[in-house]
Amino acid sequence: MNEAITVYKLIILYTLNRIGSPVTLDLIADYIVERGYTNYFNVQNAFAELLDAGLASCNRTYNISYYSITDAGQETLTLFHMNLSYEIRREIDEYLRENHYQIMDRISTASDYMRRDNGDYIAFCSIKENNEPLFEIKLTVPSEQDAIKLCNNWKAGSEKLYSDTIKTLLN
User: For residue 99, with 0-12 CB atoms within 10 Å meaning exposed, 13-18 middle and 19 or more buried, which class applies?
Assistant: First the structure.
């Protein structure tokens, strides 16, 4: 099992490195589980060990965690990437190439919310391009239900809102 968990960790580090942007655990776990490498529990365990070792970092927001490879993780990957078979590396690269647009879509529009001291909620919504903010908006709403609704609807409405805002401000 120790050897298997090492392979899972290398798959995670390799994928984080190849994507180059913070991603959710689910994005990588979906790939690993769909390919039949292991189950979700083992992926979570591998992520926890990578975090404990400082090879990956986690940026937690109110309801979402985003993971990135650290410098130490990149060094480790450089030293041990050959322990990950060529077939697995090729398969990951192929998957990332074939699903590039869907992956970028999942990581380019983000939304989250937090409760303020006065009881209101702030919804943070953004569109990123190459991991840089392209468009960001913060909205204060009176209830958690409203904040959740804003965050859930952000993905569907963000493109039009961005386009309309640019048109309005440039005219």
Answer: middle
Distance, CA of 97 to CA of 92 (rounded, Å): 9
Cα four-point dihedral sign 67, 24, 97, 134: negative
Secondary structure class of 60 (helix, strand, coil): strand
Q: Is the pLDDT of residue 169 over 80?
A: yes
Distance CA 144, CA 170 (A): 34
Burial-class residue 107 by CB neighbours within 10 Å (0-12, 13-18, 19+).
Answer: middle
Written in H, E and C, the secondary structure of 7-51 is HHHHHHHHHHHHHCCCECHHHHHHHHHHCCCCCHHHHHHHHHHHH
User: Among positive and negative, which fits the CA dihedral 12, 18, 20, 24?
Assistant: negative
pTM metric for this prediction: 0.70
pLDDT tens, residue by residue, 63-109: 678 889 999 999 999 999 889 999 999 999 998 888 877 777 666 78
